[in-house]
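Weekly modeling sync, notes
Attendees: AB, CL, MP (scribe)

Item 1: holo prediction request
CL wants a bound-state model with pyridoxal-5'-phosphate before deciding which constructs to order. AB pointed out that an apo prediction alone won't tell us much about the pocket. Agreed to run with the ligand included and paste results into these notes for async review.

Input as submitted:
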Amino acid sequence: MSKNFGPEYVRAIAPYQAGKPISEVAREFGLDEASIVKLASNENPYGVPESAKTAMAAAAADLGRYPDANGFELKAALSERYDVPADWITLGNGSNDILEIAAHAFVEKGQAIVYSQYSFAVYALATQGLGARAIVVPAKDYGHDLDAMAAAIDADTRLVFIANPNNPTGTFIGAAEIEAFLKKVPANVVVVLDEAYNEYLSPENQYESAAWVKQYPNLLVSRTFSKAYGLAGLRVGFAIAQPALTDLMNRIRQPFNVNSLAQAAAIAALNDKDFLEQGARNNAAGYQQFVEAFQQMGLEYVPSFGNFVLVKVGKDLAAGARVNLALLKQGVIVRPVGNYGLPEWLRISIGLPQENAILISALQKALASDRE
Ligand SMILES: *Cc1c(COP(=O)(O)O)cnc(C)c1O
């Protein structure tokens, strides 16, 4: 159909598969929207913090104006929180925007980008959208093999994507290993450390990546308000990097990429410590709920450091799709990960305790009928 339009490398892109919206599942399966449980997109099950709702209501009065293109107040708040100058920060329309901007700012067509097998789908999309070359490094125990990734960097490589914790597998790399990797990477290769799930890490796993940015001029740390902060629908994320990288990011960035409501809500959420702490505690409890159920059901899962778990629901290559369909019929939306090369698995976001319970019982039913 679009055979004659666009470059070949754009035509070759497999479009991103998002989690199914609740309204679509309701229509498709004849279900009541209110009865549907969505555990598909790693959103915060507690939704938008009250503090952010109040801030947005106040900001709504000014929506006739363009947003602050420089995001002054949000950057000031982030600068204080992470102890870096405000001009080391780039705001993004979600951190997805940050990842795309980085690829466009630092890589040209034909150059290479290194990322891991089973890592975030947007890395492949950003690479392909540029006509850059992907160097996909085989995973180790479903996570990043940093030694192999360092070894895979060639003369044309300009960027490395690392997700920590990783999506869709939930694996985590400790601080010492990341730092050893940063020491090995050539100075002209940008390392994008994507920490979308950082806020869910327990205190003993936390590390100061913003401090590494001071030491490594080629490091860019990417964060988001979509997951632990509960603002996925607003689209706001940010990057921390030294001015040499940040300056280029800002040339590529659309001037008004983060809207006024998002800027106001992000400042409020950033200062809402209770919301974050409670969310992390609830997430840890939900993780236990899942893990105990999976063990009881005899299901293999990958130990997760995020707000989701990757679980193996069968042995054949159609198992994930089949069990996913059986769950959809029961009004439970999860994420099949066949597009990640994991067709026997499903990725399930951790929800409210009662949502987790619904998922567990729906999964038991789905597996029982699948084995008949
Ligand atoms: C969800 C996610 C993001 C991006 O989320 P945004 O909503 O665009 O901020 C980035 N990286 C990883 C690994 C994710 O899972």
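Recorded for review: The pocket of pyridoxal-5'-phosphate is lined by residues 42, 94-96, 120, 163, 167, 194, 196, 224, 226, 232, 237 (CB under 6 Å).
Action items: CL to compare against the apo run; MP to circulate these notes.
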